[in-house]
């Protein structure tokens, strides 16, 4: 028994373009992001996806609405797919958040959570998927924390190594097998 997982990040946001780490703030897609979300829908609507799971943060919800809103594919929002909560640093310049990210692998950001807590949260959703979606293909639309949790599942790397690694966006997303 297994589940095929297609993972893509939310589409490009105004914060991404301006160099801010949105964290748990809602964020909003840019004009280019809305075009990328539409491209995602064209690419994935006939891809055998049984359901789309998305973070409940607005930038991910907006991506899913544009990509799948009229497709008939169920879109389910789940807070566990949220980005890491940078606490008082949500909305800070991305280079500042990136520069000391290893300080918060196990220690929570002030008013937020640690990267380990964020990855464990996403892992909780992954553990729940087989109860309803076993043998099917589902899509996750999330954030960097979602990607890191999937990579931890696939590679067994520890959280520190995953957080230290540079992230490289892939326009076609990633595919994983759970189980």
Notes on the structure:
There is one protein chain. This protein is α/β, with parallel strands linked by helices and 179 residues long. The protein has a single domain, classed as 3-Layer(aba) Sandwich (Rossmann fold). 40% of the residues lie in helices and 16% in strands. The protein has 8 helices and 7 strands. The protein has a 5-stranded mixed beta sheet with strand order 4-3-6-1-7, sandwiched between helices. Helix 2 packs across helix 3 and helix 5 packs across helix 7. The radius of gyration is 15 Å and the shape is globular. The model has no long low-confidence stretch (mean pLDDT 97). Keywords: Hydrolase. Pfam families: His_Phos_1 (PF00300). InterPro entries: His_Pase_superF_clade-1 (IPR013078), His_PPase_superfam (IPR029033), Phosphoglycerate_Mutase (IPR051695).
Please summarize the sheet with the most strands.
5 strands, mixed
Q: Name the CATH superfamily classification.
A: Phosphoglycerate mutase-like
Domain count: the total is: 1
CATH classification, class level: Alpha Beta
Features:
179 residues; alpha/beta; five-stranded mixed sheet; two-stranded antiparallel ribbon; Alpha-ribazole phosphatase; hydrolase
Compact overview of the structure:
This is Alpha-ribazole phosphatase. It is built from 8 helices and 7 strands, in the order βαβαβαββαααβααβ.
